[in-house]
Specification:
Distance between the termini: 54 Å
Number of helices: 6
Oligomer: single chain
CATH topology of the largest domain: Elongation Factor Tu (Ef-tu), domain 3
CATH superfamily of the largest domain: Efflux pump adaptor protein, beta barrel domain
Strand content: 25-35%
Structural class: alpha+beta
Number of domains: 3
Shape: elongated
CATH architecture of the largest domain: Beta Barrel
Amino acid sequence: MKRLFSMTFCLAALAVSSANADDIPVSATLLKIIETVEVPAQQSGALEKVNVHEGSLVERGEVIANVAAKEMELELSVKRSEQAIAQREATNDVNIRFSRKSLEVSQSELQRALDAIATFPNAVTDTELDRLRLLVEKNRLEIEQSSEQQAIAKLTAELKSAEAEITAEKLAKHQIAAPIEGMVVRVFRRAGEWVDIADPVVKIVRIDRLRAEGFVRSEEAALGLQGRSATVRVTLPRSAELVAPGKVTFVDPEVDPVSGDVRVWVEIENVDLKLRPGLRVEMSISNAAVTDNTDDQAAEEVAVGS
């Protein structure tokens, strides 16, 4: 892998040596960090573990610290049990089935009473007939009541499910994860210390990609530098010259009123993590885009002339 990186730098150096001498020079170029994050605690409590130290390299999503979560784990267990009970109640239709059977029986009794009256007018008293009719109506209402209770049970089950999800989300926040990949440059809290919500725990900087920031003359900035290729060169102690290709990602719309220069940014890959923020480097921006546009215009003129 190291040989591959060395070949990459050598090829880039050859490309620079053969580059157009009219490339736009960038003055006062400094390497800077693109992304830095102070990772906060999302739940208050005592830190059980801090898994990193200054200089640790972390991946995005890697757990870097844990806040004590025993109480929240028990609460989640309770919420899930309540959710299971509510789901059982929501699927329990015993009362509905019993009410339907009761309605069938009461309707049969009423019908037999009516049949008896049709044969023998005084076989069933009016009071008994009213009682049987009332029983039928009561059973109908019990079916409606059981159906309503089951609907409420289903809503309760959804509520308990949401409460369990909220508790699980809170529990997950007891794990502090790295939002970016990079290097830990500072640890603010140690294991055993108390943290509140939003307290910074560690500071991470991204070092695999850096920004070279410098200045070009205002007339050169007007050429449309955004998106052009650029080259960054730096000579480190006891090391050959490193050459890193990049691309212009930002051209400041404002001109410095004193120097008449315009600030530009070029993002580069920090191969093998050899480059460090704060280094002074040399940088130039390719003039190829202007040349290509000129060639295109000439080709169009020839096409029109023909």
